[in-house]
Amino acid sequence: MKIAVIGAGGVGGYFGAKLIQAGHDLAFVARGAHLTALQTQGLSVEGAAGEFTVRPVRAVRDPAAIGPCDIVLFAVKMYDVDAASALIGPLLGPDTLVLTLQNGIDAPHRLSRGLGARRVLGGAAYISAVISRPGVIRLAAPNARIEFAPVEAKLAPLAAEFADAGNKAGFTVDVGDNVDAVLWKKFCMLASLSGVTGLTRSAVGPIRDNPVTAAFLADAVRECVAVALARGVVLPDGLADGIIKTFSRLPALMKSSQLEDLERGRPLEVEDLSGAIVRLGAESGVPTPVHRAILAGLILHAGRVA
Ligand SMILES: NC(=O)C1=CN([C@@H]2O[C@H](COP(=O)(O)OP(=O)(O)OC[C@H]3O[C@@H](n4cnc5c(N)ncnc54)[C@H](OP(=O)(O)O)[C@@H]3O)[C@@H](O)[C@H]2O)C=CC1
Ligand SMILES: CC(C)(CO)C(=O)C(=O)O
């Protein structure tokens, strides 16, 4: 397939590297020192899934140099979604699909307003990865998965083709039929885990081992699920308990991308995570004291630049 990745970071860089390794025609739209490293040294992956390098790598600043693609993986942080959406135009052909991989719940809906819903797939990425230095992605847990669903009910042939390509390239791709269910299922886990790891400046192990922080984390999950249900999102029965159980299976040293960003002095996505839960809870009449506490504890760091 012909694929472009906008945002060659932890998420876009890892999935992009696996797709290049599998022989797809893939180009990154990147910037800064990371772009220079991709152009001169290629892209290396290290950490939990072993080490490999793809070289040469096609990486550009201007998407016009790539032209129309089958699929665009859209993997910038949430606070960059609007600015980076301006890069998509030159990558569109008549059937091109854009797969969003942000952690929040509104990126596919925001892109649909400009691109038309038929082009947009809303994805949730289950992966733990960062740019450890320019040109290098470090993976903290071995298995990576994308679950996506089309914003419009009908699944385009290219979407099914991408799912097949990902599964053959060495990560898991699952296709759902309800985009909000896909996004909120991950959001209830992620907004809670990233909020509590960020607030406590701790990896997941010590949080789940301490009864005070374990209860706070569990309450964060239940609060988010209550907001989703109040808004009519269809979620699996027992989701909150299921999420809380999955925390016990995570590597003890695993950090959220929000904690990684906090430690690096980078801007935070908290206003689209706990901030969204507080806003939507207020709209729906659901109290959100835990996410309010997380938001209050992180908001002053949200715009930090190292
Ligand atoms: N990292 C993780 O483990 C996970 C992250 N997510 C979610 O995925 C999304 C992406 O996160 P992540 O991969 O961590 O982010 P990163 O910061 O690692 O990567 C994003 C990349 O996009 C680049 N970028 C931003 N705007 C532009 C632009 N206009 N043109 C070119 N490049 C641009 C950034 O450059 P620059 O550094 O210069 O800003 C950066 O290199 C987030 O919503 C996150 O919450 C989901 C699951 C797991
Ligand atoms: C918690 C995790 C690693 C789960 O995929 C994540 O999405 C993030 O840190 O952004």
TrEMBL record:
<dbReference type="InterPro" id="IPR036291">
    <property type="entry name" value="NAD(P)-bd_dom_sf"/>
</dbReference>
<dbReference type="InterPro" id="IPR013752">
    <property type="entry name" value="KPA_reductase"/>
</dbReference>
<comment type="function">
    <text>Catalyzes the NADPH-dependent reduction of ketopantoate into pantoic acid.</text>
</comment>
<dbReference type="GO" id="GO:0005737">
    <property type="term" value="C:cytoplasm"/>
</dbReference>
<keyword id="KW-0560">Oxidoreductase</keyword>
<dbReference type="GO" id="GO:0008677">
    <property type="term" value="F:2-dehydropantoate 2-reductase activity"/>
</dbReference>
<dbReference type="InterPro" id="IPR051402">
    <property type="entry name" value="KPR-Related"/>
</dbReference>
<protein>
    <recommendedName>
        <fullName>2-dehydropantoate 2-reductase</fullName>
        <ecNumber>1.1.1.169</ecNumber>
    </recommendedName>
</protein>
<dbReference type="InterPro" id="IPR013332">
    <property type="entry name" value="KPR_N"/>
</dbReference>
<keyword id="KW-0521">NADP</keyword>
<feature type="domain" description="Ketopantoate reductase N-terminal">
    <location>
        <begin position="3"/>
        <end position="151"/>
    </location>
</feature>
<dbReference type="GO" id="GO:0015940">
    <property type="term" value="P:pantothenate biosynthetic process"/>
</dbReference>
<dbReference type="Pfam" id="PF08546">
    <property type="entry name" value="ApbA_C"/>
</dbReference>
<feature type="domain" description="Ketopantoate reductase C-terminal">
    <location>
        <begin position="178"/>
        <end position="296"/>
    </location>
</feature>
<keyword id="KW-0566">Pantothenate biosynthesis</keyword>
<dbReference type="InterPro" id="IPR003710">
    <property type="entry name" value="ApbA"/>
</dbReference>
<comment type="similarity">
    <text>Belongs to the ketopantoate reductase family.</text>
</comment>
<dbReference type="InterPro" id="IPR013328">
    <property type="entry name" value="6PGD_dom2"/>
</dbReference>
<dbReference type="InterPro" id="IPR008927">
    <property type="entry name" value="6-PGluconate_DH-like_C_sf"/>
</dbReference>
<dbReference type="Pfam" id="PF02558">
    <property type="entry name" value="ApbA"/>
</dbReference>
<comment type="pathway">
    <text>Cofactor biosynthesis; (R)-pantothenate biosynthesis; (R)-pantoate from 3-methyl-2-oxobutanoate: step 2/2.</text>
</comment>
